[in-house]
Design brief:
five-stranded antiparallel β-sheet; Aspartate Aminotransferase, domain 1; 53% helix; elongated; alpha+beta; 4 helices; single chain
């Protein structure tokens, strides 16, 4: 169904995204977040592949004694521990933490998310 109001809203949204440079910002902050997750791999061997595009990121959790095997139990535990500490995200495919902050996220908020993930990974 054609909707002039919907089309106007979509165009206005696209204008804001372009005018405020949100796509470039998403690429920069996504790389920052991804690098932070990669840094966490050093202290958490259960953190497997880290991947992402912009602010759409995924980090797989694997079994420490067999890193080729997924660890959905730990992924769920990390998700709920993170939630109890104020960070909300979903898991995908059982063992992938799916991290998708808004385009307006601040670097300080990404730092806090990384702190929460670090603590949650440490206790699960």
């Amino acid at each position: 169904e054609k909707s002039p109001v919907g089309a106007a809203a979509a165009l206005a949204t696209l204008e804001v995204i372009e005018e405020e440079g949100l796509l470039d910002r998403a690429a920069e902050l996504g790389a920052y977040f991804k690098n932070g997750l990669i840094d966490l791999q050093r202290s958490h061997p259960c953190l497997g592949e880290v991947r992402g595009l912009g602010l759409f990121l995924g980090a797989t959790l694997v079994q420490v004694d067999n890193p080729t095997q997924p660890d959905p139990r730990r992924a769920e535990a990390v998700m709920y521990e993170s939630l109890s500490r104020g960070l909300s995200f979903k898991t995908t495919m059982g063992n992938t933490l799916t991290l998708t902050p808004p385009l307006t996220v601040l670097e300080s908020e990404i730092d806090r998310a990384l702190e929460i993930l670090d603590a949650s990974l440490a206790v699960t």
